[in-house]
């Protein structure tokens, strides 16, 4: 049986001092779950093929998919400034994502609401999101009788060390909904693997492409932001993701989609509420 891996990407920051700023109020972590065999045999070759087709690439200096640079046509994606090239690239990238066998889980944290509700609870927002994301991942693995580990994008020396310590603590002590023995039974490592996207980690690049659209969809559904910008590519991507979220008995909120702290409205499921 193939081992699985959850690749994690973040949008926003964990700085609580920016919680009142509308542009920095929300932090999200997105986990993309993939079979390692599938990544090796299917997704990685397809990513490398589309990179070679549309951009100048050399094995010593591989192209790394970054959502922002792709959108803005910045180096090394200058060819996307041509509208016809961009349309063809978007079409092929959407096809790959549609056909890729993955499951997505996104956790969005309202830092302002979190700070107001839990003033006495000093828990790093990033680590809180990671604990919920990891909890959902283990529940997914257990439900499907699978085993896996976790890859996260490098965030810097001190941040990486703190994340590793937080991961070990979750592994050792479990969470409100996942006991330590279930963590140990389903996760193949007590250590979280931290790598920069510059290492050409295919799963981290896919997570980078999906994290912002997933976060934005959750905020729109819950009335936290207004839809002021229309983006056809993003809308098509969101349409694909609807069938990729983890769910239980048809319920996505509380599983594939999570908005914290728990609020009224579409947010349901086993979300810790203090």
Question: Would you spell out the secondary-structure blueprint of this structure?
Answer:
Blueprint: E1 4-11, E2 26-35, H1 36-54, H2 67-72, H3 83-99, E3 103-110, H4 111-117, H5 125-143, E4 148-153, H6 157-173, H7 180-186, E5 193-195, H8 202-221, H9 232-241, E6 257-260
Parallel strand pairs: 1-4, 3-6, 4-5
Antiparallel strand pairs: 1-2, 2-3
Helix pairs in contact: 1-3, 3-9, 5-6, 6-7, 8-9
Structural commentary:
- α3 (83-99) packs parallel to α9 (232-241) and α5 crosses α6.
- Strands 5-4-1-2-3-6 form a six-stranded mixed beta sheet, sandwiched between helices.
- It has a single domain, classed as Nucleotidyltransferase, domain 5 (2-Layer Sandwich), CATH 3.30.420.
- The protein is α/β, with parallel strands linked by helices and 274 residues long.
- 33% of the residues are buried.
- It has helices spanning 36-54, 67-72, 83-99, 111-117, 125-143, 157-173, 180-186, 202-221, 232-241, and strands at 4-11, 26-35, 103-110, 148-153, 193-195, 257-260.
- It starts with a strand and ends in a 14-residue tail after the last strand.
- The protein is globular.
- It contains nine helices and six strands.
Count of DSSP helices?
9
| Dominant shape | globular
Radius of gyration: 18 Å
CATH homologous superfamily caption: Ribonuclease H-like superfamily/Ribonuclease H
Structural class of the secondary elements? alpha/beta
CATH class assignment: Alpha Beta
The number of domains is 1
Q: Architecture in CATH?
A: 2-Layer Sandwich
Biggest pleated-sheet summary: 6 strands, mixed
CATH topology descriptor: Nucleotidyltransferase, domain 5
- Give the CA-CA distance, first to last residue: 38 Å
Helical residue percent?
40-55%
**Counted beta strands:** 6
